[in-house]
Amino acid sequence: MKLRLGTKFILIVVGILSITLAANSVLFLRSQNSLLESQLVEQGKALGHFVSLVSPAAILGYDFLLLNEYAREVSLQRDVVYGVIVDPDGRPLTNFINRDNHQITDLIVEGQYPHMAELLPLLQRDPELIALEFPITNDGAVLGAFKVGLSRSELIARFQQQLLVQFATYGLIILFLSGAIFLVFRYNVLFPVQRLIRASRNVEKGEYLQVMVDSDDEMGELTKTFNSMVGSIHQERAKLHHQANYDVLTALPNRMMAVERLTYEINRSRRDQELLAVLFIDLDDFKVVNDTLGHATGDQLLVEIGARLKSKLRDVDTIARLGGDEFLVLLPRIGSASRIEQVTERLIAAVSKPLQLLPREVMVHCSIGVALYPNDGDTADSLMANADNAMYQAKTQRRSSVCFFTSEMNSRIQERLQMEQDLHLALDRGELELYFQPLVRAATGEHCGAEALLRWNHPQKGFISPEVFIPLAETTGQIIVIGEWVIRQAAKHWSKWNKRGLVSGHIAVNISRVQFQERLAWVVGEVVAHYRLPRSALELEITEGVLLEDHELIAKEMKDLRDMGVKLSLDDFGTGFSSLSYLKRFRFDLLKIDRSFVSDLPHDTDDASLVRAIIAMAHSLDLKVVAEGIETQDQYDFLRELGCDFGQGYLFAKPMCGRDYERYLQRVQGRDEGDQPPLSMTVFPSRH
Ligand code: C2E
Ligand code: MG
Ligand code: MG
Question: Most buried of 100, 145, 477, 559 (most Cβ within 10 A)?
Fold first, then answer.
């Protein structure tokens, strides 16, 4: 049984009081009783002495009437049950018995009193009687004795009565004292404790209420300590809550909080039948800022952008940082799509405003994807995923684009998923094939090597461009296996042609950034050793994007590759985040000018100046230059005049399968048995 504090306390108080008072009354009554008993005995003694003094004359004078009178007088005294004068042999000479006394009436058998001689021993053994005996003497001679019996009955009755009164009084005292002590306990201990219990339960529920301090005793001290403890817990919890729900850098809500708010807003929009917009905002090229200006500046930029975005929103809107350079904006009760467009315009304008990040001014842009409740999803997950998809779509468009989610995007995602699955099987099914596009020495037009380009012949979709499936393979990680296969195939072809006596020059293989994470140098080393490929015959093409990744890892792998003797070229130069610092930091052998700079040559004066500058700069850094996408003779002539070292493009040859490339090699090396003149002569006649 569970006893409450108050019950325990009252039981203890009542127990202690009862034991104390009971012990007290027993002691008191016992001493009282013995006092009364001794008084009784004294009374008996007085009577006895008196009778033994007056009786000798009556005994000697055989005045039995007088003796009777003495006995009667004695017996009439209070508490005396019997008074008997016996002769020296113990025979009663006279006696008197108090016949009203119950000890006497108890001894009556069949209405007859037994004879005094029989009665006396019985009465003397009765524990309720005090039997006293006094000798009667005359001049030293024993004349008999006076026996008197005093009853304790009255004493006992009085004792019992006193006991009752005592207990009743003590009962009342116990009740009163217990009640009073309990009240004091209740107001001074129990109530404050109960208040503390209630407050503790509230803390459990997340309510941090202070308890009133109404005394300065220990209870008051305890309450004060409790209050300060609750205060600290509150602060700690608030801190933890903030850490768990807010982004440390920007102090904006984080992903967890964003999901919570979004769920709340979805429920409210459902109830009020209102439109809710979810905006996924991603900064364009944030990595470049981080990389070129350092992480501290990148952080500064994120804080500033977060603040700008927030300043353009209403109080009811939410802005959260999901991580990296991704922000999420919730626009509840937004009314119409045109209102959303106004908001996105405002946000884009705010982000695009130049930003003073010492020591320079920076301009960033962002892409925004929009998903709407209820049209594009009714859960936080689906709305966020669809806004994210829309944002990716926006990224593929011009800078600072906004894209609203459409159901086609979903089918595009499905298509992408299907393609991902198909790509898994492509290698095993033999759907991947390497094509080779020749490279020529610009000055002479002679063949000097080829770039290996991957092709996917999909059984249903036909040819799929590497520009479509390579990024996909990169995101799924399949590029590791595929990329290794490409290196192996390229080396295998080279060694086959070499065995057939064909001089295929060097072979350039495109390398994805992801491959760097998987011991690229080790893989390359193993492949070249296996196919006995001269290391200088292998060239690895890396795009600028790779250099934005983990610097140390890339630098180490590149160094290992260079130490191995493998050539490195910087592909698609000018399209990415071209930075001269990369050229200085990472050492390349070649620089490939992207075809977008070549296509409008020689007429576009801007491109012409750019290409001229690139070639001059590359040469000054001791780099050879390859121009990609040369399609016309004019382009070729122009580039050659600028001192470009190598050329690649449809003007010379389109990418071709391994068998065709072998034939091409045979032709350019004059080993063709047919009538056709060597290919180099027909495709790029020299002006000079
Ligand atoms: P890239 O490395 O810059 O390759 C050159 C691209 O330009 C090739 O496109 C080639 O067919 C095309 N091209 C060459 N000359 C001309 C021309 O005169 N005019 C035009 N319009 N185009 C020309 P392709 O084969 O579609 O490859 C596209 C990109 O896919 C490549 O660009 C490369 O970045 C990537 N890629 C191809 N194969 C692989 C591979 O095995 N691994 C990796 N990681 N990427 C690859
Ligand atoms: Mg390339
Ligand atoms: Mg290229």
Answer: 145
